[in-house]
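Input chain follows. Return structure tokens only.
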Amino acid sequence: MSLHAFSVLFPIAGFDVTVDMAVVFGLVALALVLFVTEPVPVDVTAILLMVLLMVLSPWTQISPAEGLSGFSSPATITVLAMLILSAGISQTGLVQWLGRKMAAFAGDDPFKQLFATIGIAGPASGFINNTPVVAILVPVVSDLAHQGNSSPSKLLMPLSFASMFGGMLTVIGTSTNILASDVSDRLLGRSISMFEFTELGIIILFVGTAYLLTIGNRLLPERIEPRDDLIEEYELEAYLTEAIVLENSPFVGSTVAEAGDMIAGSMDVLQLDRAGETFVEPLAQKSIRADDVLTLRTDRNTLQQLIFRDGLTIAGSPTSDAELEVEDGHQTLVEVIIPSGSSLIGETLESVAFRGQYNANVLAFRSREQLIQPRMDDRALRVGDTLLVQAPADSIDRLSRSRDFIVAHEPDQPEYRTEKIPVALLILGGVVLLPAAGILPIVVSALGGVVAMVLTGVLKPAELYDSVDWNVIFLLAGVIPLGVALEETGAAELLGQLVAASATVLPALAVLWVFYLATALLTNVISNNASVVLMIPVAIQAAEQLDVNAFAFVIGVTFAASTAFMTPVGYQTNLFVYGPGGYRFTDYFRVGAPLQLLLSVVTVVGIAMFWGL
């Protein structure tokens, strides 16, 4: 007899909870703690949950086949294909071209800049996964702000929010929508069609846009002043020093690398000026001479040691970007963002030998609200961290082509396959229209689109694997079995009964609103995909207990899970703009909370109108 047969029943608030349910609830609680605290990346947490579900199969009722089902799920495969298709569109430069048109239209008018940012990001995110859209547009919008003498802080958060509005125009706008469709199909036998919620999505886009152009614009701070100098923004005056090498200095005759080994503290030589000539990377083997002027990044204690013991005299500190930018563009300053899927996540600047590998100096970086200047080489990098990099133009171009970075500045000579734009649009149109017409399932049309992009040269075969954000794929594969366990053990039914009990005092519309708010709060602190997996089974059970339209509850949870405005960690796109916008954690709540509340009412009323309860 199986261990499951010995499950013991015990009452909680009048409902019977089995040992199986208790085990699954324990795993859900563990998942929430790990997703919120992030001791390990979220995709690793998801795989851990998948393993635990299989190891505890006598109680979770998840067999190895079910535990691994997330890898073969149509949702996972569709998301993988859509990420590749989005990369193909990016390679053509179509979105960047639209961005430049946007800049030309907006000029230096702040209202036009904001309207154009939303107007490009919103519609584009309905047909291209919204995360790549934001990654593509961050440098375009940052350049627009600086060229138009506006604060990037006024545009970058709206860029992220608009991408979420647009993501609700079609089922392929976000990975969350695709996953929700798959879960709905499994539990209700009804998936979400391509344009199922387009009408409501358009309403959300218009309402959200109106909010950002009016109330939201007033609430948005100017954390970064127009044309703000990066040296000032990163508060580097205390850490950057220009020092003249005296004749009696022990550094004379040694190389830059040897000079670094002579001192006990931390010192980086960023550039060397000699008789009007400036030398930058590679500097390690450059010999130091008397009267050389070294630009150093160091802390106060090490600086004192250099002054009193090492034959240097302080010439001052760089006070503007121009002093660290070599003429003819050979050395420039630029911000670089660490996106989801970057191989640098969890690594340190020292462990990846950043300076040597990328021929670039990191002067400082912003991690969430904290500015990191001293001892930053040993600090583990996280998604959304923004590095202030000094590098030659060719190194910055190389960084911009790497999927490990988002460079917050468009390359001067981008290498796009503009001649492939018509072909890419035709392929994307086929991917969208074939499922909409009922000719092919979304997963088949998406995979067919990937093949078509390779055959037509929009994408090269070697670019396929680099186009996929594997963190998202492993996250999906890991959390899908958790939703199955909630169903198999009856845990979802129990939670649904508990929620349905509130119907004694609340109408069905209010219960739907409560589900929207609960999902929105949850997705602001954990992965939006995890929110869908946890909340849809419970919402369906609650709807069935109330004898109302369960599909309407699925739509409500899906909209709530795809719109996380109140924290920077609730959605990847919020993290992408966190550093370049100079935001604080509380900025998201101040701007996002009223928007979240407004859209909760609009969405719930819209669901009642379009789908009925």
